[in-house]
Specification:
Blueprint: E1 2-3, E2 10-11, H1 21-25, E3 36-42, E4 45-54, E5 57-62, E6 65-70, H2 76-98
Antiparallel strand pairs: 1-2, 3-4, 4-5, 5-6
């Protein structure tokens, strides 16, 4: 993880605007949370985010949104990829409606 332009703000996605997650989602990460990087390529574009595991849940966050799901025996990294894909799809649908 990289530090963003605002002190103490963790940058989750750095390939688009360089803005930090705190600015976009209005939340700070607890220092105790171990974030794992996540990256997906969809239709030739690369989307980034990260995930954490806590209390039997997988939590995914990106500039496009956030989602959580309960662990179900599947590998956490695969669940995180599925969640990021859902976030991207929902974001694309919302962006299409605004046009």
């Amino acid at each position: 993880m990289k530090k963003g332009p605002i002190s103490g703000c963790v940058m989750i996605v750095s390939d688009m605007t360089g803005a930090c997650v705190e600015k976009w989602l209005g939340q700070k990460l607890r220092k105790s949370e171990q974030r794992e990087p996540l990256e997906l390529e969809v239709e030739g574009r690369t989307f980034s985010g990260s995930y954490t595991l806590s209390s039997g849940m997988v939590h995914v966050i990106s500039l496009y949104g956030r989602k959580s799901i309960q662990l179900d025996g599947s590998p956490p990294d695969l669940l995180a990829e599925q969640l990021l894909r859902q976030i991207i799809q929902e974001s694309t649908v919302k962006a299409g409606r605004k046009k």
